[in-house]
Amino acid sequence: MSTAPELPVELSASYAHRTGDDVRVVLQLAGGAAPDAAALQLRAGRKVLQVASTSRSTTEGELLEARLPAADLRPGVWRLALVGADQDVRPLEARLLNSRKQPIALLPGPTPRTELAPPERVVPVAVAPRRARVYRAASRIADAGLAVLPESRARRYRAALRKAGHRVLG
Questions:
Q1: What's the CATH class of domain 15-108?
Q2: Domain ranges within the chain, ordered by starting residue
Q3: Deepest of 9, 103, 144, 153, by most Cβ within 10 A of its Cβ?
Q4: Could you tell me the CA-to-CA distances from 98 to 76, 79, 117, 120 in Å, in that order?
Q5: 64 pairs with which residues across the strands?
Q6: Among candidate residues 80, 74, 75, 101, the one with its CA nearest the CA of residue 92
Q7: How far is it, in rounded angstroms, from Cα 104 to Cα 65?
Q8: How far apart are CA 2 and CA 97, in angstroms?
């Protein structure tokens, strides 16, 4: 991808849908004429697809249309760009969302810059003193009973008992 600014895509006149075994993408570029586009480029990670596109001028700007085989699109988010005749790549403010379980969707507009809130600190709940005494007593009894077993087997049983004890007493 180039470092050129993203070309804005008109929200209301742009769409994508399946037509038989193909996906049809229609993009209305906002704000003036678009560069001469020879192809529409779709990028998802390292996977890059390039398909021929047609354009025509309308009163609102340039209208680009492209068709590509639906089988070529793996599930995920695909970033869109225009490739000029001189192989100059101009990114678009639009993404194509493909899923096997849902319809295909065109997401016009800039990519949101969201950040997750830091995770909340989980404070462990203190075990009540009575529960702690019961847990320690059960641990001593289990250790005495498991002492006759080989260490590897005793370690597995201790882990299972510890897990059960936390479920019961926790």
A1: mainly beta
A2: 15-108, 129-169
A3: 9
A4: 5, 11, 27, 33
A5: 27, 55
A6: 80
A7: 16
A8: 22
Contact 104, 90 (CB under 8 A): no
Which residue do the tokens 């596109």 mark? 53
- Tokens describing residue 9: 């895509």
Q: Is the whole model's pTM more than 0.85, yes or no?
A: no
Residue 113 has which token pair? Answer: 């810059």
pLDDT tens series, the chain, 170 aa: 456 778 888 888 888 999 888 999 998 887 655 566 678 999 998 999 999 888 888 887 788 899 999 888 899 999 999 888 788 888 889 999 998 888 999 988 888 788 888 888 876 666 567 777 887 888 889 888 898 999 999 999 999 988 888 787 76
Q: Which positions ≥6 away from 97 have C-beta within 8 Å?
A: 76, 77, 78, 104, 105, 106, 107
Strand bridging mode 15-19 / 89-98: unpaired
- At 147, list the tokens: 């002492």
- Alpha-carbon gap, residue 39 to 48, rounded angstroms: 12
Q: How far is CA 141 from CA 37, 50, 145, 149, 153, in A?
A: 78, 69, 6, 14, 17
Structure tokens at 12: 């209301």
